[in-house]
Amino acid sequence: MPSQTQGRGVLKSWGPAARPTNGYRRHIDHLATMAGTDVPPPVAPSSGGGDIPPDGIRWSAPIPSYAARIHFHVPPPPAGAASWPSPPPVVVLCGWLGAPPAHLAKYAAVYAARGVATAALTAPTGVILALHPEPSQQAFAAAALTALVDAAVPGGDDGAPLVGRSGLAWHAFSSGGAYVLRAIATLVWGTGSAGVRGAVSPALPPRVRAAVVATAVGGALDSAPAPMDVEAGVKGFSLAAWGSVTGWRPAAVRAVFSAYAAVQAAVVGDVSARYWADMRRLYLGGCRGVARLAVFYSTADVVLDGGGVDALEGMIAATGAVGWRVDGAAHVQLGRVYPDEYAATVERTVVSWLRGWRAGAGAGGPR
After folding, report:
1. pLDDT band at 185 (very low <50, low <70, confident <90, very high)
2. For the sheet containing 69-74, what is the strand order?
């Protein structure tokens, strides 16, 4: 089916069972304009995933002041080459709440198969659920970005950092990853809440900011953002901890979250409203790091119940981001349920943008 456009307000959707579900206009777009070929036709859900390939270079680096590390993987150089002619592009995998490195490995494998290096990190739970969330998350983002930019490939010939010499993109999972991406955008491009009463936001070293601004091309939000209300928080936390949103433990979490949200609202104001306002700035702010944005989501995601799908699709439709929607995958399970389509979508969005940077677009190229 040929793609249809409606200016900046187009909502691009493709994948299994794509069909209108609300008042926003939906268009089926096989990404012919992005890649020149159609996405493979939908297939039945199946298990997928996999580990990072054993070849290539793997190492980790600490994030100072936090019980967290960045786990790097650089795939082997192109066939027939003894080494990379220049550093490969890098995708930063921002994990969901509590995501262990092993669970992010299957996503690193998708990028490794396409010659893209990855840097996987997960913010500590205390950072995501802090009473003053924005400054807490920005402080973590500042430390993580500094560690990222300073990291050099072990045994590299020139000892130069991996990041800052080739394209850089983001792939953020669930609201935990979206929180980190929001903090990064606030520090680097000033598109979010710079501070909250009673707290001071950190400063980002100029050399770190320069390296990110010079190379960032955009990225993907995967199963995010969800409405950051108490119910979404309960579901997200329960899925991360126990893989279920029913039973006595989620009920206990709901009671704790409700009390915590009341205290937080009294101390720092409406965190949910600021989150959505900041996410709109990510879309509309014009900063290069999120100028190209893909949103991967499922209507079967329980975190999006109660109007979350409509709210998310409204943001996509209003801002011109690229949306990939499926109807049969649970929270943060899109790549496992639809592995072939997921890989094709990553290829035609994030990887395509990174290749455009390498081909000469660079930091000053067209958006």
Report:
1. confident
2. 27-28, 12-13, 322-326, 293-298, 216-222, 168-173, 90-94, 117-121, 69-74, 57-62
How far is residue 92's CA from residue 321's CA, in Å, rounded to a whole number?
19
pLDDT of residue 194: 54
Q: What is the DSSP code string of 111-142?
A: HHTTT-EEEEE---HHHHT-SSHHHHHHHHHH
pLDDT tens figures, 90-103: 999 999 988 888 88
0.85 cut: is pTM over it?
Answer: no
What is the C-alpha separation between 282 and 179, in angstroms, rounded?
Answer: 11
Left (φ > 0), alpha (ψ -120 to 50) or beta: where does 222 sit?
beta
Residue 34 reports pLDDT greater than 50: no
Cis peptide before 225 (omega within 30 of 0): yes
Token output for 176? 């935990």
Burial group, residue 70, by CB count within 10 angstroms (0-12, 13-18, 19+): buried
Q: Which residue has the tokens 């979490």?
A: 253
Give every CB contact of residue 229 below 8 A, 6+ residues apart in sequence.
Answer: 272
Average pLDDT for 207-226: 86
Q: What is the pLDDT of residue 108?
A: 94
Q: Using CA atoms, how far apart are residues 157 and 192, in angstroms rounded to an integer?
A: 39
Question: Identity (one letter) of the amino acid at 216?
Answer: A
Between 65 and 308, residue with greater pLDDT = 65
- 217's torsion region: left (phi>0), alpha (psi -120 to 50) or beta? alpha
Amino acid occupying residue 361: A
Answer for the pair 26, 109: CB distance below 8 angstroms, yes or no.
no
* Identity at 325, one-letter amino acid code: R
Amino acid residing at 283: Y
Select from 325, 241, 297, 262 the least CA-distant residue to 28. 325
Tokens of 220: 């993907």
